[in-house]
Each structure stands twice: as C-alpha cells, then as structure tokens.
Amino acid sequence: MNNSFLNMASIGDFDPLNASIPATKVEITVSCRNLLDRDTFSKSDPICVLYTQGMGNKEWREFGRTEVIDNTLNPDFVRKFILDYFFEERQNLRFDLYDVDSKSANLSKHDFLGQAHCTLGEVVGSLGSRLEKALGGIPGKKCGTIIVKAEELNNCRESVMMQFCGNKLDKKDFFGKSDPFLVFYRSNEDGTFTICHKTEVVKNTLNPVWQAFKIPVRALCNGDYDRTIKVEVYDWDRDGSHDFIGEFSTSYRELSRGQSQFNVYEVVNPKKKGKKKKYLNSGTVTLLSFLVDIEVTFLDYIKGGTQINFTVAIDFTASNGNPAQPTSLHYMSPYQLNAYAMALKAVGEIIQDYDSDKMFPALGFGAKLPPDGRVSHEFALNGNPQNPYCTGIEGVMEAYYQSLKSVQLYGPTNFSPVINHVARYYTNTSINEKCLSHKT
After folding, report:
1. Which of these, 337, 438, 251, lies nearest to 6 by C-alpha position?
2. In this structure, what CATH number is given to the domain that contains residue 211?
C-alpha cells in the first residue's frame, strides 16, 4: 500500500523506456598490500573509496566506501561494491586509498595513500577475474599495490542468520586470555579465497559466544551450497598484528544441518600440528543456530496479488507562487506541463498499472474554496467530498486543472488532515476486509 503526497516539483530525467537492462551484476572485492605508513606511533588505518565515471561529462562520482580497518598496511576489505556490468560499455573505475585520522566523512581531512585506475572490463577479463595494480598518485613514493577481484552474482535471494561459540581456544595473550574473532572466506574457482564476513571481538575469554549475524547466501557461497567456506580464528591485538589461533572448513550444506554433532569444528593451526606430535587442536567452534530467510522482492508482492492504492494530495498554498506567473509551480502554460502536473504524470502513470480499478482519490490542501472563501486543508479536487475518486491519472489531472481555476491559493501548509483522511480510509478498509473474512 503506497500513498503519495505531491507538494514538490522536481522530477528526474530518467526514461524507463530507454533505460538499459544490465547484463549482469558483479561483486568487487578490494585488498591492498604494502600501503604507505602515515601514522607515527602505529600503522595506517586504511579505507578504499570507489569512483565511477559518468557517461556524458565523464565526471568522477563517488560510488561507495569500504569499512576502515585499523592498524594495517595489508587490508582485506570486507565491504563489497556491487556494480552493473555492461559488456558493450567502457566502465572506468578509480580506487582512492586514505588513512583515516578522524570521524570526519570529508576525505580531505585524511591522509591520501594512493590511487589506481582501471576498467571493470579489465578486472572481469583478468585471469581469475583478479587484477593487481600498483598504486600511484604520490610523486616519488611507492604506494603499494591494490588487488581487485570480481565475481558475477547469481540471483540467489536467501539470507542466513547464524551464531557460533568457541570452546577452549588457545590462550594467546601473556597477561590475560585471548580476544577471539572469526573471519569467514568463500572459495573461488582458482583455489583462492575471498573474505566475506568478520565477527565482533569478544574480549578476554577462551570460550567466546559471538553475536548472531545475518549474511546473504550469495555473499557466503554465491548460491553454491557445496562450495568450501573457510573460517579463521584470530586473537585480536590493538596494533593490528592479530595472532592466528587456527582454522576450519565447512560448506553451506553442512552448516544447514543446524546445531548438531556435525557442526562442532576442531580449530587447527597447521604450524602447530606440524611441530607437535601430540597436538590435537586449538579448541573448537560450534554452530549454535542456523536460520534461513528468503529475501522477498517487490515483484514477489506484485505476483502475489498486491494492489497499490494511490492517493494524491496537492499543495495549494500561496508559497507555490501566483498560477498566472511563469515562476509558479502551478503555472498553466499552453505549451508544457507545470511542475505538479509533471510529477503527477510521472508517478501516476507507473502506479496505475498496479491498481485494478484505477480509481484514485485526489485531494487538495491550503486553499480558499468557493463560494464562501473558507480555507480548507482537505478538499476533493473533483468537488465531491463524498466521492473524491478520479478515473485514472488523466481523471486526476483534469480535476487538478479544474481546481486551479476555481480555488484561491492560501495557507498555511498543513497536510495532517489529508494524512488523517487516508489513515481513516485504510483503517475502515481493513475493518471491512476483516468483517468479510469472518463472514466467509
């Protein structure tokens, strides 16, 4: 159920008829090696910012940012960039690295670590869809390298909520216990691994219980239930040199068995195992819960019979300007639609396809009405308060034009009455539907 109140004029120039349909979506993962160290008493705290280039003016626009990783010159960023990949277009990308020194979102407040340019086609077309490039942008400095990986996303729409705990993990801290956290990786076809999730750190314990977390199955294994998932266990250190406790492997299919003896994993440190004959493990990690959730899309609702009820409420306050003047949002030009008519048409022509009877209540507020000049903040555009419905978006447009000719723009801007009008209608509709269901 969607109700739109039109009191604004600007609409975009998006043309749904001529919009390209993306061939596929790809997920971009970024890692860096040997970044510049900009911090005096610790290592850099890097973030990666992705810019894409506009088709027309070639202007660089920020697409997104990874998370900040503290105290490392070799970050493996968890946060991904999801891009539409067009085979027939050159899609230029720019990756900028910064050392984050404060909580400011303004990049100029942080130390620049270097940048790299490439195209999405370059990444996708590289061996294993893995592109490694030198970072530049700082004269006379070696800025390290950036590794950009791309993987096509399938249309798997499941998410899974999981929770894990650890038991008798190795003690790594001299003066206390370990501060353990988990890092999840999905395997790639070339035998490499891509990071997909980090848990929070649980301080000073060898028996941690991590918070439950939700992750798309697409991110965990790209919809391949038998793909290997590697999990590494670390002891967190403030300086970023986290101690490796051990690792284990599983798969989505194995995890989906839920809490059972199958999902108690021995955490193994290969170096320790090679050195000590009596070494068994560095503790265990147990799956406590596993809950699958299907991500429902708008299209699923429409296929299921959802109807969208569209109510229009138009602002007739004097702040819109004199309708006789071209500067007014209500200006009645013989040559083109005014701002309100453009917004009505743009929204209404799409919405009406999802309403079977195409009867839309159309209201106005903030005007003096004939014949007595009383101010109303809830009047029917068609002049019939008992039945404010108009037939289709063309009927709404016609009622709007007729109102403009008869009412006087006034004020103030008070749209609570039309909100209450819609709320009353849908409350009554819900009650009627419940009554009908009880009768049947």
Report:
1. 337
2. 2.60.40.150
